[in-house]
Amino acid sequence: MHPMFKTGLTAIAISVLAFTSAEAKVEGDTITLGSAISLSGKYSSNGVDTQNGYNLAVKVINEAGGVKVDGKSYKLKVDYYDDESTPARTAQLVERLVNQDGVQFVLGPYSSPTTIAAAPIIEKYKIPMIEAEGASRALFNKGYRYLFAVLSTSEQYLASAVALAAEMAEKNGKKPSDVRVAMVFENDAFSLDVRAGVVEDMAKFGMQTVIDDKMPADLSDISATLTKVKALKPDLLVISGHNKGAVTAARQIKELQVDVPMIAMTHCEGAKIVSQFGPSADGYLCPTQWAETLSYEDKYFGSAGDFDKLFKSTYEGYKNVPYQSAQAAAAVIVWKEAFEHANSFDPEKVRDAIASTDMTTFYGPIKFSEAGNNIAKPMVLRQVQDGQFNVVAPLKWASHSIVWPRVAK
After folding, report:
1. How far apart are CA 376 and CA 330, in angstroms?
2. Distance between CA atoms of residues 158 and 143, nearest Å
């Protein structure tokens, strides 16, 4: 069951399936942001995490006085449509937000495929979009001028796991080139970019690929791959398939008692692998855009740890705060800062203000390249240790040492 809103968030306007058309992007004292987001379908769990992050930031900003433009204070509001985790639907709904609802400021959808579908629409209408959940490199090589992403790009997600595998090999008297790697990825833009980053880093060390499989479209069964893993005994298993793929992998690794010294997998927190699978989740390496132990802070939420506490006290059902929620909140902060920096609601002036962003938030530093991706923030790698997510790499940010080899439980 998705986390439900507690009392106090009901004042935020949340229209999921339909809402009355806005005559303009700003009405009275309210700035309307629009988003087509996955509230049903295979990405719905992360879609709700994203929506919760957006809404919490809106609440905090509004309670602190809102957005000040040309001497007047405005409240933020987000109008949502459910894109059903379907890129074609995302494109239709972004068109509707712009053409029928008059929205001229867009918050991104959840996932790379849906963001890829939205990008040409916002580019066509010259409507700026700040997105928090589309990490695919395909978004940043098209020359888009109106797309801005607060998160690190997807090829970076599991790269540090490859470097850790090389380090473990050397500590145990082997060469990095002796490391044998098994891979299984969803066949979508994000996961294939993650794979590309892994392959590039493997090549630097001369590592060997022993399995290179794709998940089925419904992400419901990877037992055939895991059976091969048991037989071939790789040193490193890397997995990426959003929340549903992570749940499938964690469940079947437990059921089949797959024992690999190092397993690195995206979307651990969002998939709630600790609460779902208990001790069997120990040892997983999980890339994250953000962690509550990092030393980031801002004037809106305070420290990363403060955001973690506020989020958990606002929304029920979270043992760990998904980084998707943190970066969603950061995207809303960028909107506030851009409106105030532009001192205008003219989309072109606001777009230029977004492009000039150079700030530090509780989520991390944000500075956009000409292509629109955030070039200031690193990825970190956490390991599940006794049910806790502890940062183990890079060493600059590490709060704990890696536990290696992983022991199946």
Report:
1. 14
2. 26
Better-scored residue on pLDDT, 384 or 4: 384
CB-based contact 274:281 (threshold 8 Å)? yes
CA 21, distance to chain mean position in Å, is 30
CB 70 within 8 A of CB 64: no
Give the bridge partners for 33, in sequence order.
78
Going by pLDDT thresholds of 50, 70 and 90, the confidence category of residue 309 is: very high
Q: How far is CA 199 from CA 191, 194, 202, 208, 244, in A?
A: 12, 9, 5, 10, 23
For residue 395, give both structure tokens. Answer: 């060493």
pLDDT tens digits, 363-408: 999 999 999 999 999 899 999 999 999 999 888 888 999 999 998 7
Spatial distance between the Cα atoms of 110 and 295, rounded to a whole number of angstroms: 26
Q: Kindly state the tokens that stand for 81.
A: 């449509």
Q: Is 276 exposed, middle or buried (0-12, 13-18, 19+ CB in 10 A)?
A: middle
Specify the fold of 155-291+380-393.
Rossmann fold (3.40.50)
- Cα-atom radius of gyration of the chain, to the nearest Å? 21
* Architecture of the CATH domain 26-153+292-367: 3-Layer(aba) Sandwich (3.40)
Q: Does 11 have pLDDT greater than 60?
A: no
Tell me how far apart the alpha carbons of residues 324 and 65 are, in angstroms, rounded to a whole number: 25
- Read off the amino acid at residue 116: I
